[in-house]
Amino acid sequence: MMKKSFNICYLLETAALHGGVRIVFDQARALVARGHRVMVRAVHGDHRWYPYPVEVSYVADLGQPFTDFSPDVVVATFWTTVSSALVLEVPLTVHLCQGCEWEMPEYGDRKEAIEQAYARPIPKITIGPWLNERLEGHFSHGLFPLESVGQIVDTVLYRPRPPVSCATGNDQRQSPCSILVVGMFEAWVKGIAIALEAVEMLRAEGFDLRVIRVSTLPLSPEEQERFQPDIYHHCLTPTQMAEVYRQADIFVTPSRSAEGFGLPFVEALATGLPTVATAIPSHLSFDRKHDYACFVPEGDPVALAAGLRQLLDDDNRCLALSRRAVEVVQNRFQADVVAARLESCFQRWLNGQGNE
Fold it and tell me: Which CATH superfamily, name and number, covers 177-332?
């Protein structure tokens, strides 16, 4: 039977540079490659940071009627777009879930509104099975159809780099070991302060370390007061980030369990960066062996420092992690696989069928 081509519209409040927006653009690009028409509707922002073509329509109101586009499927993204998606009254309305916003302290005053948006009985698609478990645990089981479609990683842009020595005691090393930490200091779920505290511990022990920080926000007075990074970047495009990964020696991702995925983590793995990562459900989901990163408990700077110390003292461990990380990413995060799963969900739900 010939595959049906869909008209699909994703709703975004902003098309500005953000990991969650990139996930939307990556899905749109993968679906277009399979013959679908995909439009992203946004209220504000500028999508030109994205390195590939994507159709974006900027509107004053996400819920305004369509004029020259008739969607079969509208995908709400962040929880604030769910009500607009429902107003549009298209054949299929879907909620793309990328995290557990109701668990994050910064959204504490909106927890009830977030839970109400998630509880709407419309199909949900997630970027990983751990989110399915969180949704089913927090809301009534069977309240809505729920499927995990997986995640996309651009393994062409984030390609393996040549192996380097991470050991600070290596006589051939002429410079400090560069530790890369990515994420907003202000976001509790990212745990950035924990990583910076761990680095300070190691520096106090005499390790020669250089810290590269990347965030979507400028360096805040609060972060600067607590820790002065050697290099600080903000609002880097995906192409620029690819170069930063290649300049680093070790990647550290200290995210907490509410983290929906952690895109920089998997991008770092794709480039072959030896990584210290918190043992949270999303980070542990890539492969059952859990041998692609050095995993440590979340929220524990002492444990994180110990994990870093292992890599700084052992080049062989770093090389093994690097090789395994590249292998895991290249085997798991293909765009066409995610797009095929999206197609299957849309077709099944348009036909009035629930989860299979």
Answer: Glycogen Phosphorylase B; (3.40.50.2000)
